[in-house]
Amino acid sequence: LAKTTQPISMDSYEGQEVNITCSHNNIATNDYITWYQQFPSQGPRFIIQGYKTKVTNEVASLFIPADRKSSTLSLPRVSLSDTAVYYCLVGPSGAGRRALTFGSGTRLQVQP
Amino acid sequence: EPEVTQTPSHQVTQMGQEVILRCVPISNHLYFYWYRQILGQKVEFLVSFYNNEISEKSEIFDDQFSVERPDGSNFTLKIRSTKLEDSAMYFCASSEGQGLRFTDTQYFGPGTRLTVL
Q1: Of A54, A76, A102, A108, which alpha carbon lies 20 to 30 A from A85's?
Q2: Yes or no, beta carbons of B105 and A34 under 8 Å apart
Q3: Contact A32/B33, CB-based, under 8 Å?
Q4: pLDDT tens across A17-50, in order?
């Protein structure tokens, strides 16, 4: 599995855009990039997944450069309720390993 | 929106006792998982289950653990003889797994907090 590196923590204020970058230098051709969010005492929640370029949904955007060695999760106009731990996961889609390997994630603290 | 549900939300047990944690995966999902998270630590994979058998398990999932799908809706994790170090949040997850190519998007339940005294 590709190793991922992301900041341990980030601070932001309500209304700001937050960008969390994840490095995955040894990403494989069939690997997808997936981001999960976890609130305290809750299970991880899928946010977004992508393979290349840009993916956007109602919650976030995911930017993936052409070399795919990194990715950036963008949260527009964060609110206090976006305070959570955000995990970047890289792994193959399709048949094969299905165990998700979570790192330590990025702890985002949104201040008023 | 369909959800994974888990019961109980909190289980307190004595060391050496057996516990069964229950999960109801999303109805059309085919793959089921258990993860655990010790307080302040990472989410750790325990086991995945497909077609009524274990498809993958981690080193944590030793002989003290077992999983079962006793009927068409429930998915259970049993710990035969609990230890203090089994105290953790246990999360059930499920995914679709249909077709030749599918995402590994897993949907997690709210968790069961297991406290072993």
Answers
A1: A54
A2: yes
A3: no
A4: 999 999 999 999 988 899 999 998 899 999 999 9
| Pick from A45, A91, A97: CB nearest B56 | A97
Q: Mention every residue, 6+ apart, whose C-beta is less than 8 A from residue B9.
A: B110, B111, B112, B113
* Lookup: tokens for B115: 């406290």
Confirm whether A75 is domain-assigned. Answer: yes
Residue of B nearest to A48 (CA): B105
Q: What is the pLDDT of residues A46-74, one digit of tens each?
A: 999 999 999 999 999 999 999 999 999 99
**Candidates A42, A91, A102; nearest CB to B104:** A91
Q: Where are the domains of chain B?
A: 6-96
Q: Domain of A72?
A: 9-111
Domain B6-96 CATH assignment equals 2.60.40.10: yes
Per-residue pLDDT reduced to its tens digit, A69-78: 999 999 999 9
Is A2 part of a structural domain of the chain?
Answer: no
Domains contained in chain A, number:
1
Residue A96 tokens, joined: 């094969």
Q: For residue A6, which residues of chain B lie inside 8 Å, CB to CB? A: none
Q: What is the CATH number of the domain that holds A74?
A: 2.60.40.10
B95 contacts in A (CB within 8 Å)? 98
Looking at the DSSP bridge assignments, the partners of residue B95 are B31
